[in-house]
């Protein structure tokens, strides 16, 4: 989804001061955010928003922001927003020379893998992910020795090294389609155990799991969901498939972040709770003011490392450029591109070829 920035930037403004010009330039953004952000916060964010939007034009840069980024980033400076799959696709299509990835490190690596000729910046190098750090390339090689000939499907929440050892990647939005596309009796699914178990319920393939978990989604319990139902009559509960199985069993809808947004848009429930990272509800609520969003507050500490000051510093200093070994990048790119091809038939052909080798 592309967000147009329709406001005019002032030619000159006092550096990082909340001047009347800055207030005027950012008023249309704040008008959209006033239901999810206290007015007192705006003078802190607005000067950064103006400065970042000006600088990104000068740098021929584009800002990609994941659904879990805070509203001032998501609605204030992002050009492209979405889940991992949407960001991967858009990274490939942009003409900008510089990509600033507001998300976590594996997302920036994925953008670099797909766009090796572009400069990909991540505002904080320590923005990691518990899933990505749960598995190494060596682990994948050992699994291949243990299960020879079994295709490896790897969630995009992994390092480029791990993707390079995989046959095909997937996201939570397309995981079932990717597994089905392989046409294999057995599949190794890495590294998210809960997403893997959710996929296994929807395919005939025998799924071999890894014990990786998202530290945000694993904290939800089925009892949390029962309490929401008791406290908020007629609430629709939407859960991300990185949650434990008993949580998913209690939910009315299970899907990726993009799936949740589509579900809200189509069904227009009166009251909803999204069992996922808590900035997601703020970001979606902006576009659906008539729906009551009950907001669980499980924050991803890695996503929250990205802030407006760090984005500005990243653009000013061109920090931190993501580097991926070209050989690793080439192999990882094949796994990501096979995922992007799913639905067009090529993964099936690829699987037939691999399994015959
Ligand atoms: S929410 Fe979970 S899967 Fe997403 S970046 Fe944070 S730790 Fe990783």
| Major β-sheet strand ordering | 2-1-3-4
Radius of gyration, taken over Cα atoms and rounded to an integer in Å:
21 Å
Q: CATH class of the largest domain, please?
A: Alpha Beta
- Total helices: the number is 16
Q: CATH-wise, what's the superfamily of the largest domain?
A: NadA-like
Give the integer mean of the pLDDT values: 91
Bound molecules: iron/sulfur cluster
Largest sheet: 4 strands, parallel
Instruction: Look at the helices and sheets and give the structural class.
Output: alpha/beta
Portion in strands: 5-15%
Strands, count: 12
Q: Ends: how far apart?
A: 40 Å
What number of domains?
Answer: 3
Low-pLDDT sequence parts: 1-14, 345-357
Describe the protein.
The protein is α/β, with parallel strands linked by helices. It has three domains: 20-128 and 304-317, Rossmann fold; 132-215 and 324-356, Rossmann fold (3-Layer(aba) Sandwich), CATH 3.40.50; 217-299, Rossmann fold. Helices cover 44% and strands 13% of the residues. It has helices at 20-33, 42-58, 71-74, 84-93, 105-114, 137-146, 160-164, 175-182, 193-200, 222-231, 245-250, 257-267, 279-285, 308-317, 326-341, 346-356; strands at residues 61-66, 80-82, 98-102, 119-121, 152-155, 168-170, 186-190, 206-208, 236-239, 253-254, 271-275, 292-294. The strands form three sheets. A four-stranded parallel sheet has the order 2-1-3-4, sandwiched between helices. The protein has a four-stranded parallel sheet with strand order 6-5-7-8, with helices on both faces. Helix 13 (279-285) links the parallel strand 11 (271-275) and strand 12 (292-294). Helix 5 crosses helix 15 (326-341). The structure holds iron/sulfur cluster.
């Amino acid at each position: 989804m592309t967000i147009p920035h329709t406001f005019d930037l002032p030619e000159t403004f006092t550096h990082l001061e909340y001047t009347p010009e800055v207030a005027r330039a950012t008023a249309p953004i704040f008008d959209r955010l006033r239901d999810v952000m206290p007015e007192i916060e705006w003078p802190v964010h607005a000067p950064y928003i103006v400065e970042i939007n000006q600088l990104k034009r000068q740098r021929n840069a584009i800002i990609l922001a994941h659904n879990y980024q805070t509203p001032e980033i998501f609605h204030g400076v992002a050009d492209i927003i979405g889940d991992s799959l949407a960001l991967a696709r858009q990274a490939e299509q942009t003409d900008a020379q510089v990509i600033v990835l507001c998300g976590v490190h594996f997302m920036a690596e994925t953008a670099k893998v797909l766009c090796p000729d572009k400069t990909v910046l991540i505002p904080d190098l320590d923005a990691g992910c518990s899933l990505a750090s749960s598995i190494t390339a060596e682990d994948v090689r050992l699994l291949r020795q243990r299960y020879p000939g079994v295709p490896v499907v790897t969630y995009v929440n992994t390092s480029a090294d791990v993707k390079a050892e995989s046959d095909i990647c997937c996201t939570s939005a397309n995981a079932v389609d990717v597994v089905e596309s392989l046409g294999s009796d057995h599949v190794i699914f890495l590294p998210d155990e809960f997403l893997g178990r959710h996929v296994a319920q929807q395919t005939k393939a025998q799924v071999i799991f890894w014990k990786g978990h998202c530290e945000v989604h694993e904290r939800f319990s089925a009892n949390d969901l029962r309490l929401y139902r008791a406290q908020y009559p007629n609430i629709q509960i939407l859960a991300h498939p990185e949650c434990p199985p008993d949580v998913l069993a209690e939910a009315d809808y299970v899907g990726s972040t993009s799936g949740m947004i589509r579900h809200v848009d189509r069904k227009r429930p009166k009251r909803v709770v999204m069992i996922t990272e808590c900035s997601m509800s703020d970001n979606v609520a902006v576009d659906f003011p008539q729906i009551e969003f009950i907001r669980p507050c499980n924050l991803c500490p890695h996503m929250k490392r990205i802030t407006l000051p760090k984005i500005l510093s990243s653009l000013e200093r061109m920090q931190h450029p993501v580097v991926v070994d070209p050989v690793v990048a080439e192999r990882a790119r094949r796994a990501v591109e096979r995922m992007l091809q799913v639905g067009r038939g090529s993964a099936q052909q690829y699987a037939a070829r691999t399994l015959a080798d």
